[in-house]
Structures are given as C-alpha cells and as structure tokens.
Design goal:
Blueprint lengths: L2 E5 L3 E2 L5 E8 L8 E8 L6 E7 L4 E3 L7 E6 L4 E6 L8 E9 L7 E2 L3 E5 L2
C-alpha cells in the first residue's frame, strides 16, 4: 500500500521560505509513470495545484506560483520536497502531497495534509 506523509514547520514568518517534505512508502518515486504533486487549500477556499515532479525528475509549476516555487526530490530517501519563497499570510493553508499516473484525471494517492500558517 502506497502512503504519503507530509512534514515540515507549521509556522513560517512572512518573507521567509516555506519548506515541506513528502515521504513516500510502498513505492519508489522513480516508478513509471507517476507524478508527485503539491496541492494546497487556503482557509475557506478550494484546492490549488502548485506543481509536480515526475518519475523522470521533470518539473511543472502553476503559472501563478512558478516564480516562487521549487520542487525537488531525494531518491535515496524516497522523498520529494516543496520550497515556497517569500511567503505572505495568503500562503496560509493546508498543504497536501498527492500522486497519480500521467494521463489520469484524479489523484490516486493523498497525504493527510499539514497545516501551515504564515504569521509574524
């Protein structure tokens, strides 16, 4: 059974960098043809896709977040990570890691999510 677990600080100060890690168990992140995504949900709003790193280390980002976002991976630890730079209180929300195979419309695997608050 594939499981995803988010980890990282729950509180980040404005202008700093938010860093989260998703640990994957039960499957290699290099397994074809999976993409490993970060998705967030601000309070009272819908889900927002942030970006994805593919099994082949390719990356794609939301145009609205591209200038501030980086997604990377550590294959030795079977983890992938998110960095969101220059955060503001608008970046507060629940952050999820999720995965699906290329071409699938629905995400197949979700982490539980982690609350991140941006506040001084």
């Amino acid at each position: 059974q594939v499981q995803l677990q988010e980890s990282g600080p729950g509180l980040v100060k404005p202008s700093q960098t938010l860093s989260l890690t998703c640990t994957v168990s039960g499957q290699s992140i290099t397994a074809p043809y999976y993409g490993w995504s970060w998705i967030r949900q601000p309070p009272g709003q819908g889900l927002e896709w942030m970006g994805v790193i593919g099994y082949d280390d390719s990356t794609y980002y939301s145009p609205s977040l591209k200038s501030r976002t980086s997604i990377s991976r550590d294959t030795s630890k079977n983890q992938f990570s998110l960095q969101l730079r220059s955060v503001t209180p608008d970046d507060t929300g629940v952050y999820y890691c999720a995965a699906k195979r290329w071409g699938r419309s629905a995400y197949e695997i979700w982490g539980r999510g982690t609350q991140v608050t941006v506040s001084s």
